[in-house]
């Protein structure tokens, strides 16, 4: 019985060592699968994830890095807390802002995959970027969107993109919009905001997890027309986005 146990334990260690090696060399898609497998690897699996994060510390916009960080963040043991506080005291994604806007809570919500709360907070942050008048009316004008600082939009998009395995974010919506010839009537059904002639009803008909179609989140108020969305998708920041 003891030999069987030792053999099984050794097999598990060998499997984890193999996964650790693959994690450094496989494609991004395979890396995401490996990260998921390591969750079940106990303490050794967590150690592999921590070593991987440490080795990729300079590349926070790597989707496998984002998923590994998310797992450690959500597990929330003393060991993972100490590791994250030591190596990522400000979180994984750099929170740059030209308007001194605090994105820490948004990073926390997205790391926890609380997409509905993160969506509401994102709209709030867009109003903060637009200024006092937008905060009062609770939505920005397209002329205000045109003046958004690039670092802030980059931060907002990075947070959504990294913590959704590349599925959500303004850049994803914009890519789909470009793929349909900038035709908003074709965009809405593709991202799940409209079905037939009916707009998706907020909040119950939206999908608040990764089973949603690409580009489903974050939400923009399309009922007020497309000028705000068009301004956002035409912002100069996207010339810097190469993910």
Automatic annotation (TrEMBL):
Start and end residues of each GUN4-like domain: 97-236
One family name in Pfam for this protein: GUN4_N
GO CC field: outer membrane-bounded periplasmic space
GO MF term set: tetrapyrrole binding
Domain GUN4 N-terminal ARM-like repeat: 9-89
Superkingdom, taxonomy of origin: Bacteria
Gene3D superfamilies per the UniProt record, alphabetical: 1.25.40.620, Gun4-like (1.10.10.1770)
Protein name: GUN4 domain-containing protein
Organism: Hydrococcus rivularis NIES-593
């Amino acid at each position: 019985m003891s030999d069987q146990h030792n053999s099984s334990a050794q097999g598990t260690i060998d499997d984890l060592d193999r996964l650790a090696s693959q994690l450094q060399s496989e494609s991004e898609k395979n890396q995401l699968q490996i990260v998921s497998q390591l969750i079940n690897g106990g303490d050794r699996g967590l150690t592999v994830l921590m070593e991987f994060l440490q080795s990729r510390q300079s590349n926070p916009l790597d989707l496998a890095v984002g998923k590994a960080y998310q797992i450690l963040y959500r597990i929330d043991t003393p060991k993972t807390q100490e590791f994250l506080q030591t190596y990522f005291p400000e979180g994984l994604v750099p929170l740059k802002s030209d308007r001194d806007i605090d994105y820490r809570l948004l990073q926390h919500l997205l790391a926890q995959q609380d997409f509905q709360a993160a969506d509401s907070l994102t709209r709030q942050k867009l109003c903060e970027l637009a200024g006092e008048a937008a905060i009062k009316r609770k939505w920005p004008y397209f002329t205000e969107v045109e003046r958004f600082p690039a670092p802030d939009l980059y931060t907002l998009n990075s947070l959504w993109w990294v913590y959704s395995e590349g599925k959500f974010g303004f850049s994803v919506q914009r890519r789909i919009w470009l793929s349909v010839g900038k035709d908003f009537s074709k965009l809405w059904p593709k991202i799940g905001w409209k079905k037939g002639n009916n707009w998706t009803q907020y909040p119950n008909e939206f999908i608040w997890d990764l089973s949603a179609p690409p580009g489903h989140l974050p939400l923009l108020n399309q009922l007020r027309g497309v000028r705000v969305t068009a301004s956002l998708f035409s912002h100069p920041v996207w010339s810097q986005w190469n993910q």
